[in-house]
What we know:
Shape of chain A: elongated
Shape of chain B: globular
Number of helices of chain B: 7
Order of helices and strands of chain A: HHEEEHEEHHEHEEEHEHEHHHHHH
Largest interface: A-B, 25 and 29 residues
Oligomer: heterodimer
Strand order of the largest sheet of chain B: 6-7-8-3-9-10
Number of strands of chain B: 10
Structural class of chain B: alpha/beta
Largest sheet of chain B: 6 strands, mixed
Order of helices and strands of chain B: EEEHEEHEHHHEHEHEE
Radius of gyration of chain B: 17 Å
Number of helices of chain A: 14
Strand order of the largest sheet of chain A: 4-5-9-6-8-7
Number of strands of chain A: 11
Helix content of chain A: 40-55%
Amino acid sequence: MNLTLPRFFWSEYRKRRKKASLITFALFWGTLSILLLMAFGQGLTTQFSISFSGLGETLIMVYGGQTSLEFEGLPKGRQISLYPEDVDYLKERIPEIMRIAPESYSTLQVSANGKEVNRTVHGTTAEFGVMRTQIPQLGGRFINADDVAAGRKVAFIGWKVAADLFGGEDAVGKPTVINRIPFTVIGVLKKKIQDSMYQGPDADQIYLPFYAYRQIDNRRRLNQIHIQPYDAEQSKLIESRIRTLLGRKYRFNPDDRYAMSFWNTIENNKEGMAVFKGIRIFLGIIGALTLLIGAVGVTNLMYAVAKERTKEIGIKLAIGARRRVIVEQFFLETFFVFAKGTFWGFITAFNIVHLIRLAPINYDSFGIEAYLLRPEFSLQIFIVYMAVLSILVFLSGIFPALRASRSNPIESLRYE
Amino acid sequence: MIELNGITKVYRTGSQSLEALRGISLKIRKGEFISIMGPSGSGKSTLMNIIGCLDTPTAGEYVLDSDNVAGLTFDQLAAARNRKLGFVFQNFNLLPYATAWENVELPMLFDGKSGRKRRERVTELLNAVGLYDWRDHRPSELSGGQQQRIALARALANNPPILLADEPTGNLDSRSGEEILAILTDLWKEGKTIVMVTHNDRIATRSERIVRLFDGQVI
């Protein structure tokens, strides 16, 4: 398209500035709405995702249970428990398992630095730390394979436990007594957001090497087993294989849903994400409908422009303008009207999001403000916005443009 | 160059129909200067619109430069108007928001001519009609005579072989009208085919041949 045509347009546009200003505002408001609603929706999803990953990513937790079906002559109501040897048993037989760790826990008396508290103490292995995002603060570490193998008397403690026992002091290297047995603190959990938990937040927990823990709590059975698959998509397959294998080992019907249970965070996360995706789509639709009001205004304006300029279109057709030229010019004008309103809407939305993110909001808290005031832009938002905008520009421009381009030159020339 | 055989144009409004042209046959040779005359409602402008490819006949055949116009698409007709025909209207029909320069430039824009070619041609044409110094003025800032000279320059932008002038002096004072006629005569002498609609006998005498219409027929 030749750039002289836009120049012609601007001189015309200036004459309609007052009429166009309301439409420009509607487009500004529509852009602001769609972008802010999507940005808040995105922030909500991100905050949820971060909170959820506090427990661990792609994690399946396996628990024992009580049979509800008779099986091979055995009565229902039998207790099914998990034992330390089940960890290797499952790992060897299910190739889809990437990591696996046992976990036993009980509430015990813990003292250090002259202070005494009751806390849940867990016995587990090194792989637990990776699966359950047990990231240590600087200068510390989680328990490792050697700690477990040697039954070392070392402890990894949550940051609240550290604060309760050691105040502001560095806890690493300090002694602590758990159930009258001395341990050395080797690491303190780094602060994290965690909205899913059992036995309370990790901040309040103490983790010991599995065999060291067994010296305190000599119950053989485990509380649960943690599993991380290579591929998150295989979580249901792993669940099914565990039921089959342990069903054979402990003689229960694999279809007996009460014999053992799972906390499949992968499936939970999928469901949660689907809900948030729904919320984002809903917010996007509300924003798009607001922008649609502006677009309807543009269509009306362009119809008015087409009518006002009937004579001009007739002159252009008379001196040889093809239909394409008329259509292009109308589209260009539609685009300019849109560009003016949406540009400022985009800038304003960007600045509002930026200002909110500058506010002193504690995103590590569980407060509602951490979910509601975490707007963020993403490439996806930009792509969705551009797609909605392109569709609206096309729909707003095409009908007035086609009507104008199909004008009869003679009738248009006679129009006054 | 222009050959009309049995051209009929019927306008229909609801159940009523009006026969504006009734079987007109006419040949216009290359380089000819003809005037079409007739009283109001005789079909002069309708005939001019059909010759100018702005309208299509209801029946009959129109051959322009060996092309049967009836078989041309909307865009092919637009191309014919752009390259083969130049229009001069009684009320000038200039774009009001565009300058004199831009108005003259427009047919070349539609033809896809380069910026350099457009600049050279607009300069040449505005100099030829004596309005180069008025190139940045809009039509509302020009007199009727000046506007018609700009319209003439625009009609000549793509150097069409045929010039169609519908009452070109109808809205002008006698002096301005005379200037326009002088330009048309010069163009004819240079080899252009001129078809002019007028109901002024004195003006019609400037042409080689007069075609008189009455009630949609050549008399």
